[in-house]
Design brief:
183 residues, mainly beta, seven-stranded parallel β-sheet, 0% helix, globular
């Protein structure tokens, strides 16, 4: 599912009690728009040949810098390659959800295998703002929650059983917090 916008008014979608399964690249891509996902499952997203993949990816519009706004409630994001939920230059609220079993791929151990990433990967869009409440982040490769040059509030949540990538032993971190690569 691709939700994108180049100008105002931005797109806004609500996905409820739905299954997004076995897609390639992204299960759900939100660009400069808003998406609310409730009581849904996003799983088994496969990587492109260049090894980029996200179960859910909310990022700022690369032309306008308009951030996305993702709300994920009472949902499961599982068994994806790359990143379970990625937030880049945008806002996300994840509540009462599970992000688990995200697998790494050899070509991108920098972020691949992360359950949740909140980052400022676009120098024109700025930091991300992540709120994670009453959620379970479990059995991901490399890192459970990665905050890079962004703001995160983690409340009443469990991050556990993060595994290092088998081929290299890299990672295994529950929560990783790093400074911006642009600031």
């Amino acid at each position: 599912i691709w939700i994108a916008n180049d100008s105002w008014p931005f797109s806004d979608v609500r996905i409820r009690r739905s299954l997004v399964e076995s897609n390639t690249g992204e299960g759900l891509l939100v660009v400069g728009s808003a998406a609310t996902v409730e009581e849904s499952v996003v799983r088994h997203t496969r990587a492109w040949s260049d090894a980029t993949s996200h179960g859910i990816w909310a990022h700022a519009n690369p032309v306008t810098g308009m951030p996305s706004n993702l709300t994920l409630r009472r949902s499961l994001v599982a068994g994806n390659f790359g990143v379970g939920v990625a937030v880049s230059g945008s806002m996300a609220t994840i509540e009462e959800s599970t992000v688990r079993d995200t697998r790494a791929y050899e070509n991108d151990l920098a972020s691949g295998g992360a359950g949740i990433v909140a980052a400022d990967f676009n120098p024109y869009a700025g930091a991300s703002d992540l709120t994670l409440r009453r959620s379970l982040i479990a059995r991901n490769d490399v890192v459970g929650v990665w905050v890079n040059g962004s703001v995160a509030t983690i409340e009443d949540s469990v991050v556990r059983d993060t595994q290092p990538y088998e081929a290299t032993g890299f990672g295994g971190r529950g929560i990783s917090v790093q400074q911006s690569r642009y600031g």
